[in-house]
Amino acid sequence: MSGDLAIRLSDEERMAAIRVLDTAVGDGRITWDEHTERTELVWVAKTRADLSPHLADLGPVATQTAPPQHVVATISKVIRAPEATREVRAKARFGAVVLNLASMRPGEQIQITADAFCGKVMVFVPENATVIDEGTAVMGKRSVFCASDNTGGPVVRITGRVTMGNIKVFAGDTRYW
């Protein structure tokens, strides 16, 4: 392995690959089952060489999709229901960000980078969603109040850092906000 293929992947590159797969399933080039299988392989890929075989047969696919949605709350509360995006970057500084993802469909995936400093981020997902929380907390708290092993539903992957604040994920019920 040489050149660019030996370079290790960033999460940004993995998200770009998943956007290509999202476009391919939307165009009917692959099935939802293939999409799920390839998405899992994209997340475990370490280098560009590992990633290449999962996209090679898709040909020229438009990779331009909606850019990440930025949601920032500073000494305030911001409520959003992000649509037409695969990535949300939420920042709460002495405030609150509420993300309502209840309209996600089975098979959809979203990456949320949630950073909170003396603030909170609340995420509401469908009952059948799989939530993967890979973030960190420093003098803060991260709580997921739903099953994380559902199959067939949407997938919500959460990263980011909480410092003296909290992140809470709820399934179904949006009455808390």
Give the gist of this structure.
It holds the Pfam family DUF1707. The protein is of the alpha/beta class. The chain has three helices and twelve strands.
Query: Structural class from helices and strands?
Result: alpha/beta
**Cα shape:** globular
Strand content: 35-45%
Low-confidence blocks of residues: 61-65
CA gyration radius, whole angstroms: 17 Å
Largest sheet: 7 strands, parallel
> On the 0-100 scale, what is the average pLDDT?
84
Q: Tell me the count of domains.
A: 2
Written description of the protein model:
- Pfam families: DUF1707.
- By secondary structure, this protein is α/β, with parallel strands linked by helices.
- It folds into two domains: 56 residues, no CATH class; 103 residues, no CATH class.
- Helices cover 19% and strands 36% of the residues.
- The protein contains three helices and twelve strands; from the N terminus they run αααββββββββββββ.
- Strands 1, 3, 5, 7, 8, 10 and 11 form a seven-stranded parallel beta sheet that branches. The protein has a five-stranded parallel beta sheet with strand order 2-4-6-12-9, with no helix packed on it.
- α1 runs antiparallel to α2.
- It is globular and about 50 Å long.
Layout of helices and strands:
Elements: H1 11-27, H2 32-44, H3 48-51, E1 69-74, E2 77-80, E3 87-93, E4 96-100, E5 109-117, E6 120-125, E7 130-133, E8 136-138, E9 141-145, E10 155-159, E11 161-163, E12 166-171
Helix pairs in contact: 1-2
